[in-house]
Structure formats: structure tokens, C-alpha cells
Amino acid sequence: MKIGLLGLGTIGSGIYEHLKARDDIEVVKILELLRHPGLEHLETSDFNEILSDPEIDTVVELIGGMEPAHTFTVQALKAGKNVVSANKLMLSHHMEEILTLARDMGVQYRYDASVGGSIPFLYNLMRYRGADTLTGICGIVNGTTNLILDVMQREGRAFDDVLAEAQKLGYAEANPSADVDGVDAMCKLCIASAVAYQKYVRPEDIATEGIRHIRAGDIIFFGQMNKVCRLLVNSALNTDGSIRAYVEPTLVPNDSTEAAVHMNNNTISVTGEYCGTHTFQGQGAGKHPTAFAVELGLRDILDGVSPRLNPIPEGNADVDNRQARHAYYLRTAAHPGVPVRKLSDTEGGAAYVTEPMSVADMHALAAQLREKDPRLFFAGVREKE
């Protein structure tokens, strides 16, 4: 197998290091604007050199973002080249186009690395989907936010302080919006839900709340409630065939599976009618874990793993979050306007616990209250199962 590698950043350099030790996969060209000593003979700034090279049968797209990743992916597939990618943002917005094009061109688009890093979650989700009716997905899929929440909870430190340290150590980007606003987790839920339920889930249909406005005072209340805060993705089949799909901070019991996931690790569970609930845990991000997952995608193509394992959903999902209900922790300076139990006055308003309400209603309420209190924070409350 001869590949063209797009991007030599954190993950790109990792996959290049992995492949140097192999004799069955060769990096022929690297698309990279910056020059790296010793790699000048492989590097190019012109994607057409990769596209027009008949030797290159597979493109590894690791530049991330929406563009030019989307354009390059489409062009590579149309040129009859396989594509392996970890790009959850681009795929979540163009999944139907990309998977349909790969099928029509008779090539493979492998995206196992886009959700869960080194955790073999998507691969097994695809396998499960062929043998069972899957009914739910839940878990921690963003290592940066999990690290922030975990350190805040265990060390009593402020959000801004922990975020700055995470950026210094390379766990968080200079612009952390995709992580702390829940966008990264939302994109991953789009992809996983489409695989599980065989319906495309549009990003704009997923109710998404991040952790940007959590404060050390909130953490104190969580401890008094014997809870730990984690940013969770949730999707499930509703009784009428629609699905619920949302991302939100969630207060889980101290003895729960999610509470025991520390630092930048991930945990993802899938539930099916026959298989019950299976949980996958491990490193969900990082240079070598993600490069490992990309290498597995290359191995699958090389070994002739059937593209039927890569199912193509049909039509768009009907997302209805009115059928998901639970109580919420709410800290705001605005009047809640719904039945609540007040915990205490606190800096930035007061802390409350609401009566059980639908996910749709809570996210709509938060949008309304933020007109008066932009720094509002809320989190779902999960009771013991």
C-alpha cells in the first residue's frame, strides 16, 4: 500500500512514525506547508501531486477542520483512492456525501479513528449494528473536558486555571472552544449515532451544552450531592422510532463508571436489544492512540476487510429530545421560571435543582435565561440506577 499523507501535525507525525517500521505500507508523499529536515524528498505543498500519482492508492487525511479537508477528501475519492481519516468535524457535516461517494467509486472511507481515539468503539459499533438493534449510546468522548472536570473536582481548582495548565501541557488547543463548548463531543455523537441507528444525525439537531461556565463553587455543591460532573454524550431510540441526541454536563453518582474515568481518558457504552450494554474505555485522544486507530484503518483496507462493515445510513433521523427527562442543576442570576429547589445563594446568582424536565425544555430555557445571565451553568442530574 502506498499512501499520501495530508498533514504532519500531532497525529500526522504519529502515523508517519508508526509506518516507518512497516514494509507493507509506504508513505510516498506528504502534503505539508512547513518543511521538516530529512523529509524534504517526501513533502509537497501541492495536493495535485498526490491526486495525480497513480502509485498512491490511499490518502490519509489528518489536516482536520472543514476546509480544505472536505475538498481534498472528495477529490481523492473521485480519483479512485481510499481515504482514512480522523476528522470528526468534516465527517459529521458531510457524512452522507462522503460515504455515498466512496460506495459509488468502489473505494473505502475508513473513519474509525474519528470517535474514541485508540478505543475500538466505532469498529465494534459497525459490527454490532449488523447483528442487533442498537438502542443507546452514552459516554465521555472528549478527553480535554474530562481532564478539566476531573482536576477541578479532585484539586478544588478554578476552571480558568486548569484550562491554562491543560493548554500549556498540550491537552487543550490555544482556542479551546470546540472542546469546552461541546462541539467536538457533538460531532462524535453525530457519527456514532448515524452508525448505530442507520439514520444521518444532523449537527444542528443535537442539543449541545459545554462546560465553559462551570465554576469552583459549582463543584462544591456537586460534592455535597455526592456527585461528580462529567461531559456526556447521549443518544437513544425513542418508542416512536425517533431518537434523542444531546451533549451536556451531567452529575453522576460518585460510584458510577463515568466518575472513575480520570484525566483525559474516555469511556463509551453501547446498548442493544440482545447484547445488553457493553462499555469501552481507554485513551480517547493523543498522538499515538489516534495514530494507532488510523493505522488499524489502513490495515483493514490492506487485509480486505469488507466495506460492508462500513454501513451507509438511509435518510435523516427525526431527533426529538422531549422524551428524555431528568432533573437539572442550575446556577443563574436570573429567575429560573420553573419549579426548583434552591440549594444556596452563590457567587453569580443562586444554585438550584429543578424538577424533572425534558432535555428540549431545559436547553430552550437556558437559551432564554442567558439573555439576562450569559454566565449561567446547568448540568443534568443522574440518580443511581
Please describe what this structure looks like.
With 385 residues, the chain is of the alpha/beta class. It has 2 domains: 2-110, NAD(P)-binding Rossmann-like Domain (Rossmann fold), CATH 3.40.50; 122-283 and 317-381, Dihydrodipicolinate Reductase, domain 2. 34% of the residues lie in helices and 25% in strands. The chain has helices at residues 10-20, 47-51, 69-78, 88-105, 121-129, 143-155, 159-168, 177-180, 183-197, 216-224, 287-302, 359-369; strands at residues 2-6, 26-31, 43-44, 58-61, 82-85, 109-110, 134-140, 207-208, 227-237, 243-253, 265-272, 276-283, 325-332, 340-346, 349-354, 357-358, 377-381. Strands 7, 8, 9, 10, 11, 12, 13, 14, 15, 16 and 17 form an 11-stranded mixed sheet that branches. Strands 3-2-1-4-5-6 form a 6-stranded parallel sheet, sandwiched between helices. α4 (88-105) runs parallel beside α9 (183-197). The protein is globular, with a radius of gyration of 22 Å. The protein starts with a strand and ends with a strand. The model has no long low-confidence stretch (mean pLDDT 94).
